[in-house]
Each structure stands twice: as C-alpha cells, then as structure tokens.
Amino acid sequence: MLIRKAHETEYDEIRRGRIHAYEQYMEQLPEAHWYALKGTLSSGSELHAGAELFIAEAAGDIAGSAVLFPSQKAAYEWETGSLDYPELRMLAVNPLFRNQGVGKSLVLHCIQEAKEAGHSFIGLHTGEFMTDAIGLYERLGFERVPELDFSPLDDGITVKAFRREI
C-alpha cells in the first residue's frame, strides 16, 4: 500500500469514494443530517489553501483517503473556530479494503506530516455514530476534547473532538 498526495485528476473519484464509504451511516442519521454530510463529502473542501489530500493506493485502486487541514484554518462549514494545530478530516476507506490497515495508515501518515511541519498536536472531529472510527482514533492515542464538540444541525447528533500529542 502506498500513501501519497492525490492528483487533481483523482478528486472526483475520491469524492465518490468518500460518499460510498460513509453510506453505511445513512440509515442511522436524520435525512437532513445525511444530506449535509453527503454535501460535505462531495464538496471541494480539500482544496482550501494549505489543505492536503492523501490517498492510500492498493493494487492500483484508491483504497482510502484523508484530508489534513492546516492549523488556523476553518475546517468546517459551521462556525467552530480554528485550531492551533492541523486537523484530520474526511477519513474514508473503501469497504472492499476495510480491516486491512488502510485507515490506520492514513491517520499515521497525517500524524507524521503534522509532526514534520513542527506541530505538537493533531486534531480531528468525528460523528458520535462512527464507533469504529472512534475506536481506531483512541487506539492511535487520540484523546477526547469535549469542549470542542459541536452539533452542526441541532438534531441531536454530536460531532466529537479528539486530539493527539505528537
């Protein structure tokens, strides 16, 4: 498996892949929340200045992707403020490649990128319903930062904040 920066020609495929990876949550969410999430996943938010889009490539296929947002940049469409450290966003693993270390490899790559850039922390937010992802993040040393949680649509769904010292 190779972790690398995505090429512009791959962006549409990556966005479709993110939606496919997150479709497992569609039935768990209120309809408006699913459509908001789907809009975020298909948007060009990874094109913000300083954001880096990474993919995991396996056997010539895009097995997963993640975006690393720079510090001091608003990473969300909602008013959440900016952080003094980079933030991992939109980690997505193609269902055909799950349980093969793809997500872990992408997270570790983003941690290394943040470390090499001289940061002391890396953060992320994830929906409370994404229990597998939360387990991965906790196994990799991320800790909860509840004061940075938010509820984007006031529909009872909390987006939980995590941070890891690097």
Account of the 3D structure:
Helix content is 29%, strand content 26%. By secondary structure, the chain is α+β, with helices and mostly antiparallel strands. The chain has one domain (2-165): Gcn5-related N-acetyltransferase (GNAT) (Aminopeptidase). The model has no long low-confidence stretch (mean pLDDT 91). The chain has four helices and seven strands; from the N terminus they run βααβββαβαββ. It has a seven-stranded mixed beta sheet with strand order 1-2-3-4-5-7-6, with helices on both faces. The chain has helices at residues 11-22, 31-42, 102-116, 131-139; strands spanning 2-5, 52-58, 61-69, 87-93, 121-127, 143-144, 159-165.
Annotated CATH homologous superfamily: Gcn5-related N-acetyltransferase (GNAT)
Mean pLDDT: 91
Number of domains: 1
Q: Give the CA-CA distance, first to last residue.
A: 24 Å
Characterize the main sheet: 7 strands, mixed
Do you know the CATH architecture? Answer: 3-Layer(aba) Sandwich
What's the total number of strands? Answer: 7
CATH topology (fold) name: Aminopeptidase
What is the share of helical residues?
25-40%
Q: What's the overall geometry?
A: globular
Oligomer: single chain
The spatial strand order of the largest sheet comes to: 1-2-3-4-5-7-6
The portion of residues forming beta strands comes to: 25-35%
Helix run count: 4
Based on CA atoms alone, the radius of gyration comes out at 15 Å
Give the ordered list of helices and strands: EHHEEEHEHEE
Low-confidence stretches: none
- Please identify the top-level CATH class: Alpha Beta
The helix-and-strand class reads alpha+beta
InterPro entries: Acyl_CoA_acyltransferase, Bact_Acetyltransf, GNAT_dom
Domain N-acetyltransferase: 1-166
Protein name: GNAT family N-acetyltransferase
GO molecular function, one term: acyltransferase activity, transferring groups other than amino-acyl groups
